[in-house]
Specification:
Strand content: under 5%
Number of helices: 15
Structural class: mainly alpha
Number of strands: 0
Distance between the termini: 55 Å
C-alpha cells in the first residue's frame, strides 16, 4: 500500500493501521502514554509520513476525527497554523488524553496569532490535559518563538505561581517545565524565574515546593549559569 498527498483520509488511516506495532505500543505505555487507540508508529515513520503527505489543513481535521492516536499526531504535524481556528484548537484540546499529544499540539498552537489568549483560557480550564496545554505552550514559546519579547514571557510567572499547587502529575510537570524554560531563555529572564523558583521551593505546599526545588536545581547548575553569563 502506498499513499501520497492526494490519498483519501480513509486510505491514509488504513496505511497507518498497517504499520501497527505491538512492541512499540507497549513501549509507549511505559512512558505513561494512553495507548487505547495507539498504533505504535515510530517517530522516524511519522516524520517520513509528514514529509510525504505535506501540509493539508482540511485533511488534518479529518484525520483528527478518526480518533486514532497516531492519526491525530499526523493531523497535528500536517495542520496549518494559519488556517487553524480558535474553535478548532479548543475542540482538539477537549479531546486530549495523553501528554505527548498535548506537547506536540502546543507547538502548533503557539504558531497561531491567538495563542496567548489560549494560554490564559486553557490555564483556567480544570481539565488536566487542557491545563497542561497552557504551560506546554509557554514552555515551547520560550524556545521556538524567538521574536517573543522577554517581558511577555516573564508576564506568565504569576500564572505559573498560581497553578504551582496543582498536584496532578501532567500539570505540575508542565508548570515546572514552563518555569525552567523561561529561566533558561537568557540572562534577562534568569533572575526573575529563579526568584520565583526559590519562592516556590520554600512553599508550604508539597507540589509548589517540588516545582521550585527542581527549577532551582537546574537554574543554578554550572551548565546553565555558564551559558547565560553576560
Amino acid at each position: 500500500m502506498t499513499i501520497s498527498p492526494g490519498s483519501a483520509v480513509d486510505e491514509i488511516v488504513a496505511y497507518l493501521q498497517s504499520l501497527r506495532n505491538e512492541a512499540n505500543i507497549a513501549g509507549l505505555a511505559r512512558y505513561g502514554i494512553d495507548t487505547t487507540t495507539a498504533l505504535g508508529i515510530t517517530t522516524p515513520q511519522m516524520q517520513a509520513l509528514v514529509r510525504q503527505l505535506k501540509r493539508d489543513h482540511r485533511r488534518a481535521l479529518a484525520l483528527w476525527r478518526s480518533g486514532l492516536r497516531d492519526a491525530r499526531m499526523l493531523a497535528i504535524l500536517t495542520a496549518d497554523p494559519k488556517a487553524l481556528t480558535e474553535d478548532e484548537a479548543r475542540r482538539w484540546a477537549g479531546d486530549f488524553n495523553s501528554w505527548e499529544v498535548v506537547d506536540t499540539a502546543a507547538d502548533l498552537f503557539t504558531e497561531t496569532p491567538y495563542w496567548r489568549d489560549l494560554v490564559e483560557e486553557f490555564a483556567a480550564d480544570d481539565r488536566e490535559y487542557v491545563r497542561r496545554t497552557a504551560f506546554a505552550m509557554i514552555a515551547g514559546a520560550t524556545v521556538h518563538n524567538k521574536s517573543e519579547p522577554d517581558q511577555a514571557l516573564l508576564a506568565y510567572l504569576p500564572l505559573i505561581e498560581k497553578h504551582s499547587t496543582d498536584p496532578r502529575n501532567f500539570v505540575r510537570k508542565a508548570v515546572n517545565w514552563a518555569l525552567r524554560n523561561i529561566g533558561k531563555r537568557n540572562h534577562a529572564c534568569h533572575a526573575p524565574a529563579l526568584a520565583l523558583a526559590q519562592k516556590l521551593a520554600a512553599s508550604g505546599d508539597k507540589t509548589a515546593r517540588w516545582i521550585g526545588k527542581d527549577a532551582v536545581r537546574e537554574l543554578t547548575s554550572e551548565k546553565i549559569l555558564k551559558r547565560l553569563k553576560p
